[in-house]
Amino acid sequence: MTVLSLIESLKLDVHNGGDGNRSVSRGVVGDLLSFVMGGAPEGAAWVTLQTHVNLAAVAVLKEIPLVILASGRTPDPELLDRCKKENIALATAAGSPFEICGALHDLGLKG
Fold first, then answer.
1. In the prediction, which pLDDT does 29 show?
2. Which end of the chain, N or C, is more open, meaning fewer C-beta atoms within 10 Å of its C-beta?
């Protein structure tokens, strides 16, 4: 599944499209950055409530192509700028983290 197909399937509000052709093979959910750094698989879609710039650094480190901000969150301007610079897709979903993870699972992604 690609970043673009996930964005379309989940009807996400896109802040930065990143590389829409990058493959997303797994999912991860977490707000604790050290948890995500320690356990997120490469190529995961990351679901979080956090909106600060440090998310981009973790996404780069773990080669995460898509960050999904849950519960209608909007990114801090610094996060949006960094995602643009690093070509990371950044989008918002209206649903809760639980709902988004369920939708990712329904699309065939595993954690």
1. 97
2. C
Distance CA 75, CA 50 (A): 8
What is the distance between the terminal CA atoms of the chain, rounded to a whole angstrom? 14
Full domain range(s) for residue 68: 3-99
Average pLDDT over residues 49-75: 98
DSSP string, 62-74: TT--EEEE-TT--
- pTM (2 d.p.): 0.97
Eight-class DSSP state of 52 = S
Whole-angstrom distance, CA of residue 25 vs CA of residue 32: 21
Identify the CATH number of the domain in which residue 53 sits. Answer: 3.40.1390.20
